[in-house]
Design a protein that fits this description.
- The protein has 226 residues and is an alpha/beta fold.
- The chain is built from 9 helices and 10 strands.
- The chain has one domain: 3-Layer(aba) Sandwich (Rossmann fold), CATH 3.40.50.850.
- It has a 6-stranded parallel β-sheet, sandwiched between helices.
- Helix 4 packs parallel to helix 9 and helix 7 runs parallel beside helix 8.
- The protein is globular.
- The termini are close together.
- The protein binds tricarbonodiimidic diamide.
- Tricarbonodiimidic diamide (TIU) binds next to helix 7.
């Protein structure tokens, strides 16, 4: 499979090379997306994130049907919290913070129900899951090695939240030489204005961090591969 797919994108068309491209789905975790989770407990409107579930589900199905590489990330920490920076633990001055008992188990702790990926987008056997302690998916993880071993040079990035973990990961990827395509309908933020600006920042200045497109264009392109 050496065909490239030319996708309508901003600031200009993205030439997707299926054999060198991976889908990276960021932090679609129960604690960020589900009513009654940590995100909602902090006063956030989870519906702003939940609108991304169906577009991600459709995209993931098409991506898997095309036989391409998909990876998933989860933000969280070891149960002993040894990888939790003290500054992250106390930031926000909330009475309930990371590692404490939350609505779906200990907050952002690996192995707890709220830390896991929502059932709608659950990783299939063989799809790598990257457990990351930070906002960026490259910091303190083996993501870069896994991608290099598979000769991945491009990333389609989706997930939450647009201006936090998605933006941080795209910036990290850009500095490591990856071309990133962010799908606007498959990323979301608790704050609509940050979502809009987060996308603008990626595609500004000739695509300073990458490209932005709609998942419809990619799904159509994947169908044409068959
Ligand atoms: N995944 C991710 O973006 N983690 C966050 O903490 N996001 C917030 O918007 N808080």
């Amino acid at each position: 499979m050496s065909k490239t797919i030319d996708l309508a994108a901003e600031p200009y068309a993205f030439a997707l090379s299926p054999e060198h491209c991976a889908l990276l789905i960021i932090d679609m975790q129960r604690d960020f997306l589900e009513p009654g989770g940590f995100g909602e407990m902090l006063g956030n409107d989870v519906s702003q994130l939940r609108r991304t579930i169906e577009p991600n589900r459709r995209l993931l199905a098409a991506w898997r049907a095309a036989g391409l590489t998909a990876l998933h990330t989860r933000e969280g920490h070891r149960p002993d919290l040894s990888d939790l920076p003290p500054a992250k633990k106390i930031r926000g001055k909330s009475t309930t913070t990371i590692g404490d008992a939350g609505p779906m188990g200990r907050i952002l702790v690996r192995g707890e129900a709220g830390h896991d990926i929502i059932p709608e987008l659950y990783p299939a056997p063989g799809e790598p899951v990257i457990d990351k302690p930070g906002k960026g998916a490259f910091h303190a993880t083996d993501l870069h090695s896994i991608l290099q071993h598979r000769d991945v040079k491009q990333l389609v990035v989706t997930g939450v939240t647009t201006e936090v973990c998605v933006n941080t990961t795209v910036r990290e990827a850009n500095d490591r030489g990856y071309d990133c395509l962010v799908l606007e309908d498959c990323v979301g933020s608790y704050f609509p204005e940050f979502h809009a600006m987060g996308l603008k920042m990626i595609k500004a200045q000739g695509g300073i961090f990458g490209w932005v497109a709609h998942s419809d264009a990619l799904i159509k392109g994947l169908a044409a591969l068959k």
